Amino acid sequence: LTITLSARALFDLEEEDKFFHENGLDAYIKLMVEKEKEVLGKGPAFEFVKSALAVNDHIRQLDKDDDELFDIVIVSRNHAQAGSRIINSINHYGLCLERLSLAGGTDPNTYLGAWNTDLFLSPDEKDARSAIEAGFPAAVVYKYNGDHKDLPKDQLRIVFDGDAVLFSDESERVFKEKGLAGFQQNEEQKAGIPLGEGPMKTFASRIAQIQEKFHKANKPNPIRTYLVTARSGASAGQRTLITLRDWGLKIDECHYKSGASKTAILKAIRPHLFLDDSQSHIDAALKGGIPAAKVPYGINYENQK
């Protein structure tokens, strides 16, 4: 399962990025070479990556020859001469991360297919959107103020929103166009019809494949997945469950918020990654110290542009 991410998603390179835009490439490379021994701070996806790599240890305990592992790849616009600082930082934190593309200004999306990407994370919304348009699950990561020490150490936790993330945005469009009453009528009429696939469906399916190894071995699972949706449970939840069943996709927990804030339930879950398409939900999660990533897809994204 391959997760590709930009260097700025893994490490805190915001000051360096600002310096690059203000001073140009040559000055940026000179700065990175001068500071190549300085360890970079942790970026917004660091703890997610660290926890994903820890799952590999559990997989090897089940079967030392199993090569279906989390593979983390940095795909960066960074110039090769600036890459030494990134590599030194990887080694400092003890990350088992051997694959890098330092693309020297080339669009990183050029290489997502070559790396067989299952998820792409970047702080650049244009890059994430481009990846989705090319058929790759992708999300925009943001700096957050949560305490990394509060995140679970023994289990990777991933939260998916429903409409326009795990599922298509077809019902979201009905809600935007016809309001709550129109949405509820649509869901009642189509209660037995599975929803279409959203941009994160294939990623969720790959996660479930790894989880199944532990289910079959009757071992504690080092991954837990969640659906946290603004949908109501009784009036609009049934269709989501039918959809998951139709796909054969197992999600460990489903929480139906019926329009209420998701932040409290997210704080209780303590996820390493929360994927949602709504900027307001993302902002609330970040304010609450939750590592959140926006999926730039569907009608919410179109309305936010």
Helix and strand layout, with pairings?
Blueprint (H helix, E strand, L loop, with lengths): L1 E4 L1 H4 E2 L1 H10 L1 H10 L6 E2 L3 H17 L8 E6 L6 H10 L6 E4 L16 E4 L2 H9 L4 E4 L14 E5 L9 H20 L11 H17 L5 E7 L3 H15 L5 E4 L6 H7 L3 E4 L2 H9 L4 E3 L3 H7 L1
Parallel strand pairs: 1-4, 1-6, 4-5, 6-7, 8-9, 8-11, 9-10, 11-12
Antiparallel strand pairs: 2-3, 7-12
Commentary on this structure:
By secondary structure, the chain is an alpha/beta fold. It has two domains: 2-142, Rossmann fold; 156-304, Rossmann fold (3-Layer(aba) Sandwich), CATH 3.40.50. Helix content is 44%, strand content 16%. The protein has twelve helices and twelve strands. It has helices at 7-10, 14-23, 25-34, 46-62, 83-92, 125-133, 170-189, 201-217, 233-247, 263-269, 279-287, 298-304; strands at 2-5, 11-12, 41-42, 71-76, 99-102, 119-122, 138-141, 156-160, 223-229, 253-256, 273-276, 292-294. A ten-stranded mixed β-sheet has the order 5-4-1-6-7-12-11-8-9-10, with helices on both faces. Strands 2-3 form a two-stranded antiparallel ribbon. α2 runs antiparallel to α3 (25-34). The longest helix has 20 residues, at 170-189. The two termini are 31 Å apart. The mean pLDDT is 92.
Largest sheet descriptor: 10 strands, mixed
What is the alpha-carbon Rg in Å?
Answer: 20 Å
Q: Helical stretch count?
A: 12
Give the C-level CATH assignment of the largest domain: Alpha Beta
Would you identify the regions where 5 or more consecutive residues have pLDDT less than 50?
none
Give me the side-by-side strand order of the main sheet: 5-4-1-6-7-12-11-8-9-10
At CATH level 3, the topology of the largest domain is: Rossmann fold
Domain module tally: 2
The string of secondary-structure elements, in order, is EHEHHEHEHEEHEEHHEHEHEHEH
User: What would you say the CATH architecture of the largest domain is?
Assistant: 3-Layer(aba) Sandwich
Percent helix, as a range, is 40-55%
Task: Indicate the mean pLDDT.
Answer: 92
Give the percentage of residues in beta strands.
15-25%
What is the molecular shape?
A: globular
Instruction: Compute the number of strand runs.
Output: 12
Helix/strand structural class = alpha/beta
Distance between the termini: 31 Å
